[in-house]
Amino acid sequence: MSNEAFFPIGTPGQPWGSEEKARWLATQTRKRSYHDEVVREIDDLRTDFEVSEYGRHTYGHDIYPLYAVRSKSWNQALPTVLVTGGVHGYETSGVHGALQFLKTRAGGFADRANLLVVPCVSPWGYEHIQRWNPDAIDPNRSFREDSPAAESAALWALTEPLRGDCLMHIDLHETTDTDDSEFRPALAARDGKPLPPGGIPDGFYLVDDSEHPQRDFQQAIIAAVQAVTHIAPADADGMIIGSPVVAPGVIEYPVKQLGLCAGITHARFVTTTEVYPDSPKATPQQCNDAQVAAICAAINHALAQA
Is the dihedral of CA 81, 85, 87, 88 positive or negative? Predict the structure, then answer.
């Protein structure tokens, strides 16, 4: 198979250098506004929450402030829970699900937990509907102390003081048709590797931490979400995206080893959500609602076990 068959940049079998990355970046265009669609929504939350800027990224002429939303009355006696969205900026319901949670449901946890919510970790990715950042780095493989991704490094620094105190972390994602049509081919080309077989699961699923699995926690989330949208079935080999299904709608990854956002703290309860917005059986609002249902179920289960 020629490289041209699955991605138009690079030479088959050879990882990208600076020239190829520059060619890739030159093809990226802004498709929506982080300020209009996200920052304005965050600004509306300032009456009920503490909103802080925890970083600022400059890419060319574009400046992206990074925002964290916290409980206004932070109480050291309460458990702390972390919600992150938009680590992959193109995964829309991760961002807007987090915002919807803050607007509609977060108040119900005010006297039960300290909330730290980061609705959009990767603003450039949000605007350009991209998985990577402008340096062709996947932030969700880069959560570590010496991270090469500015987005990941900023979130790492924000959460460091809470790393040992966090009870629960839910990271909101999507699996989309463009994972197969665009992002996996780009990854194979960037790394100079063959393009492996793909396949997109139709429905919601979760990724647990294989090194510290919490099966009851995952199943509590699945039970809540299936009232909102359908759960992805296993394929004929008992897999979802190439990983064994360990419980209905649940697969496992070693999250810290892979540098995933879900491994950024030492929380007992961690999960990564994956909704499927391209399904004919789901609407964008259902995807946002599924993320909100997942957040609420995750917090409720974690607090019940604390």
Answer: positive
Q: Could you tell me which of 265, 302, 261, 264 has the C-alpha nearest to residue 94?
A: 261
CATH of the domain at 23: 3.40.630.10
Reported as a single tens digit per residue, the pLDDT across 133-187 is: 999 999 999 999 999 999 999 999 999 999 999 999 999 999 999 999 999 999 9
Nearest to 204 by CA among 176, 178, 179: 176
pLDDT at 197: 85
Q: What's the pLDDT tens digit per position in 48-83?
A: 999 999 999 999 889 999 999 999 989 999 999 999
10 Å CB burial of residue 237 (0-12, 13-18, 19+) is exposed
Question: Containing domain of residue 28, as a range?
Answer: 3-305
C-alpha 255/C-alpha 288 separation (Å) is 24
Give how many domains the chain has, as a whole number: 1
Query: In whole angstroms, what is the distance from residue 243 CA to residue 230 CA?
Result: 19
Q: Which is nearest to 299 in space by CA: 220, 223, 222?
A: 220
Question: Which pair of structure tokens corresponds to residue 47?
Answer: 């009456």
Strand (E) or helix (H) holding 188: helix 184-191
Question: How far is it, in rounded angstroms, from Cα 263 to Cα 271?
Answer: 9
Antiparallel, parallel or unpaired: β 80-85 and 114-118: parallel
